[in-house]
Amino acid sequence: MSGIFKKPTRRVDRVFIHCSASDHANHDNIATIRKWHLARGFSDIGYHFFIHKSGKVSKGRPIKKIPAAQRGNNTGTIAICLHGLLKEKFTQAQYSALRSLCTKINNAYFKNISFHGHREVAAKACPVFDYKKVLKLDNYGSLGLDSSIVRGVEATSDFTELNYGDQGDEVKKLQKLLGIKADGDYGKKTLKAVKEFKQQHNLYPSGIVTKQVWQLLSKPILENIRIADASRLPDLQMGSRGKSVEFLQELLFLKVDGIFGSNTAKYVKAFKEEHGYYPSDIVQQHIWKLLLEVRRIEHYE
């Protein structure tokens, strides 16, 4: 499966799992699924990846393009389909391939991405198998599989600033947090990973690893603080998940699922713009404070 996934330049924060609704051997191919989708008026096959009974993974719609797979929830997503209809006929090879592909995607986004079944956003049974068990998902769609990415560094104010060409144990620590080979040499691959990470967090994509970058790298994905004290609430942005996101969604009067996706980002941007701030998706202490003032409700206090 080496090279099957290449991170697209478009924004992605969710992955959706599907099944093809057929166990017929003649339907276990990309050409048939594409034919079905073209007949429905699609411009191409709707899924980005198709997993055969054998465990082989085929590419479908170009990853750079938005899928046509879960109506109303296509923007900001990647769509994966497994061939099959009856739960008992999906193969272990398929599940293994799904876990491997999802781990690659999860690592590429530094775990700032969630995984879901089509049935979570549609009145369908798709996928029919227990995808949450296969991927060991938590309540927020976080992948529970083993990953090369290590979260958390020691609580310290002693952050070593790093840049291209540096070597040593601090570089190894950086590489482990980025989920790449830890050889202690800040070379081209490390530079690429640092730039991607900084760009994903709305920082200028240079190769300098500052204190802010270290703090972002060590920041847990699940933000489980829920308190009406802006100084104690964490910074949030697309990809964040947990109780703090649920609290944010309540303050914005949104459907509460604890996942900071594109819809939550849309309302955060609108709220910030309405109050004279640059409309980014980042929620920092001053925005929390403003939200708590504007949305002051008795049971939050």
Keywords:
301 residues, 3 domains, disordered C terminus, single chain, five-stranded mixed sheet, Lysozyme-like, 5 strands, alpha/beta
Write structural notes for this entry:
The protein is of the alpha/beta class. It folds into three domains: 122 residues, Peptidoglycan recognition protein-like (Lysozyme-like, 3-Layer(aba) Sandwich); 50 residues, no CATH class; 71 residues, PGBD-like superfamily/PGBD (Muramoyl-pentapeptide Carboxypeptidase, domain 1, Orthogonal Bundle). It contains nine helices and five strands, in the order βαβββαβααααααα. A hairpin with a 5-residue loop joins strand 2 and strand 3. The relative contact order is 0.10.
Summarize the structure.
The protein has helices spanning 30-39, 92-108, 131-135, 169-178, 188-200, 211-218, 243-251, 262-274, 285-294, and strands at residues 14-19, 49-51, 57-59, 77-82, 114-117. It has 301 residues and is α/β, with parallel strands linked by helices. It has a five-stranded mixed beta sheet, with helices on one face.
What percent strand?
5-15%
Looking at CATH, the homologous superfamily of the largest domain is: Peptidoglycan recognition protein-like
Number of helices: 9
| CATH fold node name of the largest domain | Lysozyme-like
The number of E-state strands comes to: 5
Strand order in space, largest sheet: 3-2-4-1-5
Based on secondary structure, the structural category is alpha/beta
Main pleated sheet: 5 strands, mixed
Return the string of H and E elements: EHEEEHEHHHHHHH
Query: What is the CATH class of the largest domain?
Result: Alpha Beta
Q: How many angstroms does the end-to-end distance come to?
A: 51 Å
| Low-confidence region ranges | 148-156, 297-301
For the residues shown, what is the average pLDDT? 89
When the domains are counted, the total is 3
What proportion of the residues is helical, as a percent range?
25-40%
CATH architecture of the largest domain: 3-Layer(aba) Sandwich
